[in-house]
């Protein structure tokens, strides 16, 4: 796919095209922005545009061997690094170093794409930093992150940051409507699409997730129970903590809880719904739950949000999510340790 097809990211698209046309590509790029808005795809499209043998108007042709191999993730001059068990470890940085120690095999440069770069653990991040500090004229690093503030400041300072934005709800709906029927989603209805867009927060990844009925139900049920936590018994709080800790899609879980607490803080200040915000999760069920929870004092809401962020940052390092959620949820239920 050519860069011109990057959807809903006009600024990033123009800047990337410009780099290709002028042949001025920095050594390290950071695609920063929410999950599921096309960063991974854009990184591969950029790799295509740079490696294509028969560019059309300075953009990838989409059909030459390089374009096809990159699309299939089989291009010998491209390495894609992905977190394993929530972490990118030193061994993976060693693989990167080995990969870039060889000259490009077929193209003019070797391209290293690091997905979810904020998941580099400390040792790996420091090793990567050393690599980024050396000049590699025929290497391009593309770091992708939806939590780039968690990256080492020293790594950030080596990157040219390219912001990616949340998609507008209308764009999410348009893309969902254009989807071909996928059996795993069952029948896609207009209501299903509207709900998925409403819960997506401008991320296609999440929109697809919420297109599945069972996911939408799981979260409606979870948020309903979460909003009742201040009135819950300790046992109910621990049950809910167990449910949350066992849930596989952690990124969605933390996004939804973060969004919920954000909205409750606005509600506590009387600002909920007063500002136009296209990304806001907007269903009548959600608003009711927000208003129930916002009866807590603002200082308590802030404290819950801070503790949730701590849990989110620590996950993948060595935190036991069950223990962390047990502590947080029972504190909300009992009102203890919540100043
Ligand atoms: Zn091509």
> What's the arrangement of strands in the largest beta sheet?
2-3-4-1-5
Order of helices and strands: HEHHEHEHEHEHHHHHHHHH
Can you tell me the CATH architecture of the largest domain?
3-Layer(aba) Sandwich
The major beta sheet can be summarized as: 5 strands, parallel
Listed once per kind, the bound small molecules are: zinc ion
Give helix % range: 40-55%
Q: What is the CATH C level class of the largest domain, in words?
A: Alpha Beta
Instruction: Quickly count the domains.
Output: 2
% residues in beta strands: 5-15%
The poorly predicted ranges are: none
CA radius of gyration is: 22 Å
CATH evolutionary superfamily of the largest domain = P-loop containing nucleotide triphosphate hydrolases
In whole angstroms, the N-to-C terminal distance is 52 Å
- The third-level CATH topology of the largest domain is Rossmann fold
Which overall shape is indicated by the principal axes computed on the Cα atoms? globular
Q: Can you count the beta strands?
A: 5
Characterization of the model:
The structure is a single chain. Helices cover 52% and strands 7% of the residues. By secondary structure, the chain is an alpha/beta fold. The chain has 2 domains: 161 residues, Rossmann fold (3-Layer(aba) Sandwich); 123 residues, Zinc Finger, Delta Prime, domain 3 (Up-down Bundle). It has a 5-stranded parallel β-sheet with strand order 2-3-4-1-5, with helices on both faces. β3, α5 and β4 form a beta-alpha-beta unit. The protein is globular, with a radius of gyration of 22 Å. The structure holds zinc ion. The site of zinc ion has 8 residues, from α3.
